[in-house]
């Protein structure tokens, strides 16, 4: 049974911390305004704007201390990761999540934060895959923000997409996990390697060549991670670079890796590195329905 943190209510306190790449104060102040408008109190991690590294938001030790202290702080009800990029895997195995078992709180983010979601899933704790403060100020961020607020506050929310001729139909109820494909593949052979058997796996990616996308999926296939899925959900495949020497469509690359399996496969879900990037609870049980009318993921609060 997964541990589900309490949903937020007005007056709750959330913290913004950076586990990876640098952020700038103007971006975080805009995010603070939005979160405050939701009725939340907002705190910045002490080293959020540290200049201790050329690329990362502080040294590994600073980022580790910030996040760990927020995990241990009983007055914090959610930690929203400031942005993705790279850097979380450098410190993820040093985190101690024992405090979350006694006092669960939501951890929010996507992209590089996929490594945190997988680590939390291995510990039996739900988290939220959703947009991050560095993106809150984008002109088209409205639906992404609305979905994040709804999921944080425990309101009903559905992720759905129009039909795709390459979809494989089916209906399943199962735990949903995953996120950025590169980070899922990166977890192989680590303490965060997910057990995908009986799970709905979500994958999304950005700025990769098609042959690299094929290589990442081949790695998951070789590791047996595509064999006994309950379902496969493909989100945004953003700025995937074409190549004359690798002309398969993204859908063909994916379907070639799951050939012979009859579980539902859905393409084009609004999840990933572009708006709308709709939020969902990582590790929770959902109902996935794929048919001629499209794809629908329904979160089940009671499960």
Automatic annotation (TrEMBL):
One protein family per Pfam: Peptidase_S66
Residues annotated as domain LD-carboxypeptidase N-terminal: 14-130
Per the UniProt entry, the signal peptide is none
Q: Does the keyword Hydrolase apply?
A: yes
Keyword terms, alphabetized: Carboxypeptidase, Hydrolase, Protease, Serine protease
Which parts of the sequence belong to the LD-carboxypeptidase C-terminal domain? 174-288
> Does the record's keyword annotation contain Hydrolase?
yes
Identify its protein family: Belongs to the peptidase S66 family.
Q: Know the name of this protein?
A: LD-carboxypeptidase
> What organism does the UniProt record list as the source?
Chryseolinea lacunae
């Amino acid at each position: 049974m997964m541990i589900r943190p309490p949903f937020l209510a007005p007056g709750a306190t959330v913290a913004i911390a950076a586990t990876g790449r640098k952020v700038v104060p103007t971006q975080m102040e805009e995010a603070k305004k939005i979160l405050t408008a939701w009725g939340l109190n907002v705190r910045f991690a002490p080293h959020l704007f540290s200049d201790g590294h050329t690329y990362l938001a502080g040294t590994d030790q600073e980022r580790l201390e910030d996040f760990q202290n927020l995990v241990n702080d009983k007055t914090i009800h959610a930690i929203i990761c400031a942005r993705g990029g790279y850097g979380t895997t450098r410190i993820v195995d040093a985190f101690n999540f024992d405090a979350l078992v006694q006092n669960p709180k939501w951890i929010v983010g996507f992209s590089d934060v996929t490594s945190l979601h997988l680590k939390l899933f291995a510990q039996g704790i739900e988290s939220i895959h959703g947009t991050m403060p560095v993106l809150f100020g984008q002109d088209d961020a409205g639906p992404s923000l609305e979905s994040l607020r709804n999921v944080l506050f425990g309101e009903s929310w559905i992720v759905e997409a129009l039909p795709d001729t390459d979809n494989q139909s089916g209906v399943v109820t199962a735990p949903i996990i995953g996120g950025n494909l590169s980070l899922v593949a990166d977890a192989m052979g680590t303490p965060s390697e997910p057990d995908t058997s009986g799970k709905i796996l979500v994958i999304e990616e950005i700025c990769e060549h098609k042959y690299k996308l094929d290589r990442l999926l081949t790695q998951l296939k070789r590791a047996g991670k595509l064999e006994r899925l309950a379902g496969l959900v493909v989100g945004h495949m953003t700025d995937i670079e074409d190549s004359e020497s690798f002309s398969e469509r993204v859908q063909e690359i994916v379907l070639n890796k799951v050939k012979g399996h009859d579980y539902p496969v859905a393409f084009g879900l609004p999840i990933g590195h572009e708006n709308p990037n709709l939020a969902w609870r990582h590790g929770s049980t959902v109902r996935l329905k794929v048919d001629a009318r499209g794809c629908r993921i329904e979160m089940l609060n009671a499960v």
